[in-house]
Every structure is written in structure tokens, then in C-alpha cells.
């Protein structure tokens, strides 16, 4: 799922070995430092985005995907993460039809991140990195997110209405927090939704789940949406999500 068997990216999805050999790693950055650089950039996207009242499940999510894609093509050593994050926000705002003036983005960013944005004319710098970003992602601007699949897939659970709502809300929170990780460039949004709903069911201690549209050939509830998705993949990916909370510094 997500990549061809030989590890070559399928679209903007990357195998583990490609992420482990990213441009930043090849340029000498350690795994831990790269993960930290990714988190810090996404944190800026979230902080600035929320202050500008951008929706987390649309504009902020799209900016986060752009950011992770960008650093699969460039090294952090060559493009500062905070500036790139602002360029991703600026572009995502226009793509998702929630545009903000570049100077407003710069002003909000300077309020909290001035020490990390030592530019005389930040507006020009943001516009400049946006041009690099557009070329990097080859003007492939449309991004699909897992949120709508969380709602759609959960409708098959044979649970009380309030319990289903709780499961979706927890999975939704996981989806927001997963912007920090590379999950969006490893799995299709449909599979991300399955991983996060399964994790939500697990942490909510739902056992012996029954589901609608059951067929004998379906071993798991998600088989009616994505066939041949192994339970081991779903569980392992969910474990990584939980582990990411303890890794945040």
C-alpha cells in the first residue's frame, strides 16, 4: 500500500527506506534532528494558522502535507524550516480558498517566532519560498485528507450513537496530531482513516466490534472499503502514532 514493491514513490507516497534516506539525512542530519525539524515547522503552521482562524482539517492540513512533501525533495540544511512552513501556509490558503494577505501571515509569525525569522523583509522571503514550493510539488496542488473518511467509515460500526461520535472525535484528534508525522506521505488518506479509527477503537477499549454490511469474505470491518489491508500494517502504524506522543520534546 502506498508505494510500489521496489520502493519507488507512487505519487507523493514514500516507502520507509526513502524517508530514512531523505535529502536531509543524505546531507548529514540525524534521524532525531530531522524529526524535530519537521515537528517545529508543523508547530509553526498550526500556531500561525489557528491564530489566523484557518481550519485545522483543511488549510492547516494542506499546508502540512506541502511541508512534508517539500522536505522529501530538499534538505532542511538548504531551506530553513520556519520560512518553508510560512510559504506552505500562504500557498495552502489560496488553494483552499481561505486566502490571507502575506503581510498578515508575516506579522502573526513574527509575534511568536521572531527569533527564528531573522529576515529584513519577511513578506518577500515568504513569496520567494512559495515559488520554490510550487516548482517542487510540480504545481500538484490538490490534497485529499482523511477526515471525511473518518466520518464515512465509522457509520458502519454497530455502536451507540454517542460511542461512535466519541470514536470519531478521538480519531479526528489523532489526525490533527499526525500532521507532525510523515503519515500523510506514507499512506493514502483512506488508509490513514482506517489506521486512526482502529487506534481509536483500541484506546476506547471497544471489543468484539460488529459492523454493518458484513460479508463472509470480510475478515475486518475495513475490508468493505479497502481490500487486502493487513491487520499487522494497521496495528503497527497505530503503535507509531501512540509512540509519537512520547517522542515529542
From TrEMBL:
Query: Carries keyword Lipid biosynthesis?
Result: no
Q: Which Pfam families match?
A: Cyclin_N, CycT2-like_C
Keyword Amino-acid biosynthesis assigned to the entry: answer is: no
The biological processes this protein is annotated with in GO are: regulation of transcription by RNA polymerase II
What are the entry keywords? Cyclin
In what residue span(s) does the Cyclin-like domain sit? 43-135
**GO molecular function terms attached to this record:** cyclin-dependent protein serine/threonine kinase regulator activity
Coiled-coil positions are none
**What is stated as this protein's family in its record?**
Belongs to the cyclin family.
Stated name of the protein: CYCLIN domain-containing protein
Species, as recorded: Steinernema glaseri
Record lineage: Eukaryota, Metazoa, Ecdysozoa, Nematoda, Chromadorea
Amino acid at each position: 500500500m502506498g508505494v510500489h514493491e521496489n520502493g519507488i514513490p507512487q505519487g507523493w507516497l514514500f516507502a520507509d527506506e526513502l524517508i530514512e534516506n531523505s535529502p536531509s539525512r543524505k546531507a548529514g542530519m540525524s534521524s532525531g534532528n530531522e524529526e524535530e525539524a519537521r515537528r517545529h515547522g508543523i508547530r509553526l503552521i498550526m500556531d500561525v494558522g489557528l491564530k489566523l482562524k484557518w481550519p485545522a482539517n483543511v488549510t492547516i492540513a494542506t499546508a502540512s502535507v506541502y511541508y512534508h512533501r517539500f522536505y522529501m525533495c530538499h534538505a532542511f540544511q538548504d531551506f530553513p524550516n520556519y520560512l518553508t512552513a510560512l510559504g506552505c501556509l500562504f500557498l495552502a490558503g489560496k488553494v483552499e480558498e481561505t486566502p490571507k494577505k502575506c503581510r498578515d501571515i508575516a506579522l502573526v509569525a513574527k509575534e511568536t517566532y521572531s527569533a527564528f525569522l531573522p529576515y529584513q523583509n519577511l513578506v518577500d522571503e515568504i513569496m520567494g519560498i512559495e515559488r520554490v514550493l510550487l516548482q517542487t510539488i510540480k504545481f500538484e496542488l490538490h490534497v485529499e485528507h482523511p477526515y471525511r473518511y473518518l466520518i464515512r467509515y465509522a457509520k458502519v460500526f454497530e455502536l451507540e450513537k454517542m460511542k461512535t461520535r466519541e470514536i470519531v472525535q478521538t480519531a479526528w484528534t489523532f489526525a490533527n496530531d499526525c500532521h507532525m508525522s510523515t503519515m500523510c506521505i506514507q499512506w493514502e488518506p483512506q488508509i490513514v482513516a482506517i489506521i486512526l479509527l482502529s487506534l481509536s477503537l483500541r484506546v476506547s477499549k471497544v471489543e468484539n466490534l460488529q459492523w454493518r454490511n458484513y460479508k463472509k469474505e470480510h475478515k475486518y470491518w475495513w475490508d468493505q472499503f479497502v481490500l487486502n489491508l493487513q491487520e499487522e500494517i494497521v496495528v503497527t502504524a497505530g503503535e507509531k502514532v501512540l509512540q509519537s506522543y512520547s517522542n515529542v520534546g
